[in-house]
Sequence to fold (264 residues):
Amino acid sequence: MPDISDRTVARVRAVVVALLVAGIGLATGLVLVFGLSVALALLGVDPSPFVLLVVSLVSIQGVAFGGVALLYLRFRGRSLGSVGLRLPSLRDLLFAVGGYVAAFVAAISGAIVISITGAPAGENQVSQFASSDPSVLLWLVPASFLLIGPGEELLFRGIVQGRLRETFDRVPGVVLASALFAAIHYLALTGGAGGRLVTITILFFPALVFGTVYELSENLVVPSLVHGAYNATLFALAYVAIRLSESGMAPSGTEASQALLALL
Fold:
């Protein structure tokens, strides 16, 4: 039986690996986005908000997150089945529905707690795309299920949380993975450091839900569905808010859309 020092070393190693995997995934995505943006500029192409969004999604959530996750699994001699990738059962779907509701309750609760303090929150960079062309939000609805949910959950739940759970108990493993998932959104936010940290704090709550449903179902498809549905709903609501603002029916619609997108 390993002694305390052995367990401590194993846990530190797990945290370091989790940080490296998440960091490499994000860095790879950012490099790809930068490289493709430079290539478009050299070709004299002035990309629309939609094109920029596609480049970002495919590069980060698709190629980078998915690629790093698959390389990690191959390095450890494992398959996608080892992270619980399988068709969901009726029980899994019930977890997905419950997780979807819980994610919104968690996000709203976190936002309420933060609003009581009066602290300013950061804004998601998607708001900038939406302000130029609100229709990009509609494209993000299917993208939430096809790229965002699966890509982020494969890396942060299947790999990061899975690695942490090898040495940590259930609760600390989920908490650590959720904290890392929320923190990685820092670069996706705009505004001062204080506002970004406020938003990250809010994001931590739905992240806990994603991690919990994965832990309970042991099926990666479940948090992917929950995450995808959560994001898709926020994108759809933000689109409606912007259109209502443009029509004059809801003057504060733009601010509402920014608040919704900050919960992503």
Q: What stands out?
A: Residues 43 and 240 are 35 Å apart (CA to CA). The first helix runs from residue 4 to 42. DSSP finds nine helices and two strands in the chain. The first strand starts at residue 123 and ends at 124.
